[in-house]
Amino acid sequence: xxxxxxxxxxxxxxxxxxxxxxxxxxxxxxxxxxxxxxxxxxxxxxxxxxxxxxxxxxxxxxxxxxxxxxxxxxxxxxxxxx
Length: 82
What we know:
The chain is mainly alpha-helical. The protein has helices at 2-6, 11-30, 33-48. α2 packs antiparallel against α3. The longest helix has 20 residues, at 11-30.
């Protein structure tokens, strides 16, 4: 858990932390509960390195289509106006 918090700080995590700080400031300064909720949301995402999809949210699908090297013939029909 300690390595998850301390390691891997990239630009996206810093940006989330910045958003959390801005929303926290706005929530305290203007007394906006929605801004405090947004600050908590972005703060948790930044500190624990999770996104909206969680830790393993996206796994790309493998292309299961069979690839052939033979080109397919395409015929074109010319359309002319009157």
